[in-house]
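Q:
Got a chain?
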Amino acid sequence: MNKKIRLFIILVFFFIGISCCVKSQAADYTSGSVTYTYQNYSNGVMITYIKGVNSDNSINIPSTIGGKNVLKLENSSNNVISSPNVVTLKLPDTLVELGANSIVDCTNLQTIYIPYSVTTLSDTFISNCSKLKTIYVDENVNALTIDGVELNAENVKNDSYAIARPFLFANKEDVITEQGKNFIDFILSEEGQNVVEENGFISVN
């Protein structure tokens, strides 16, 4: 047999073998009304796609799939969770990382439960969840470093820490009572900003 033909056949079978291996990595697991697409990751599994919600509009991600701990959510080319129907999301206490595109376009999501086990957040792990009101964080969770940036007042103020949210005062245009104006003036004063810091928040100056 011609050496070039033999080499070609070997390469064809080689790439077919790789393709089969890649395809076999992904699998589905269904619990109730929710289906999880996952693959092996480190000594556990990574969930790459979640479809469906429970009857109460929640998703409670299991801590194990196929006898292995769920360690990570991530999908580099798509969204792991992207549903207008989910209202409450509970992450498992085995999870260590929320990667890129974990929670996207969940326009009615209001509550997320994040366990103490999470140590790494991508700066794109969540986006376009405009109704999100509450993030419950386990009391044992320490401040997370995001993309190498530590959480501290300086990094929040210079916008280098990716996850920070301002506290806003809002009033109708040209309509504010004298008491309301005095309150805002106090909060923005040096004394008021000291009160802000004493209560665990970050001052604006």
Remarks:
- The radius of gyration is 24 Å.
